[in-house]
Design goal:
CATH superfamily of the largest domain: NAD(P)-binding Rossmann-like Domain
Strand order of the largest sheet: 3-2-1-4-5-6
Distance between the termini: 40 Å
Order of helices and strands: EHEHEHEHEHEHEEHHEEEH
Helix content: 25-40%
Largest sheet: 6 strands, parallel
Structural class: alpha/beta
CATH class of the largest domain: Alpha Beta
Number of domains: 2
Number of helices: 9
CATH architecture of the largest domain: 3-Layer(aba) Sandwich
Length: 215
């Protein structure tokens, strides 16, 4: 399992470091705030008090090419950009950077970030989708058009076999898995004769506008 280095321990950085550590990852947590570093000690493999924008300090910590580095500096674009440049020069292959908006995202991608996330936007999108489509439990965007989502089947689906619903021809979506709640298990690529129960969750892939049609 690759080591993860989290630089910047605000709410986002702290929680992602903690979650990864609790799930068995080797986590190095870095921040220049002594109090925050003390708090993360119990939730990281190594907690380091340091300025993440100092290239010499980063090199001395021993960040490796194969480490996954997560940069979380809030809205400090200058610091995030400088650190991203340093990490690129250190040949780090995967650099994930938190950004506040699309403009910052474009800048960070230009200087070498391999992934840029905008948590506020992604959470806003997720909440909006949950209100627009209350039967959609969770979703993973694959591109600007396609998404994978967990869907509570409409009442009209109950007791019918997947093949009877003609989801591909009617809605242009595919059921790629069924998450059965009772008993709890996953059926990957279910057969056409699988009968949908009220305790099933459909995992589907398709365009968002097509998924909306079966709300």
């Amino acid at each position: 399992m690759k080591r993860v280095v989290v630089i910047g321990l605000g709410i986002f950085g702290f929680n992602i470091a903690k979650d990864l550590f609790e799930n068995g990852f080797e986590v190095v947590a870095i921040d220049k705030d002594k109090e925050v570093v003390q708090k993360i000690k119990d939730f990281s493999t190594q907690a380091i008090l340091a300025d993440g924008t100092d290239k010499e300090v980063m090199e001395s910590i021993g960040i490796q090419e194969d480490d996954v580095v997560i940069v979380s500096f809030g809205e400090d674009l200058a610091a995030a950009t400088l650190l991203t440049l340093h990490l690129k020069e250190m040949k780090v292959k995967r650099i994930i950077v938190k950004a506040p908006d699309e403009d910052h995202k474009h800048v960070l991608e230009k200087v070498g970030a391999t992934e840029v996330i905008i948590p506020e936007k992604e959470m806003a999108d997720k909440i909006a989708k949950s209100l627009i489509s209350p039967n959609v439990l969770d979703y993973i965007p694959l591109s600007d058009d396609y998404t994978i989502c967990e869907l509570v089947p409409p009442s009209g689906f109950m007791g019918k076999a997947i093949g009877e619903l003609h989801l591909r021809s009617k809605y242009h979506i595919e059921v790629i898995a069924i998450r059965e709640v009772l008993p709890e298990r996953i059926r990957m690529v279910p057969r056409a004769d699988f009968v949908i129960k009220d305790s099933d969750i459909l995992v589907v892939i398709g365009k968002e506008e097509d998924i909306q049609k079966i709300r």
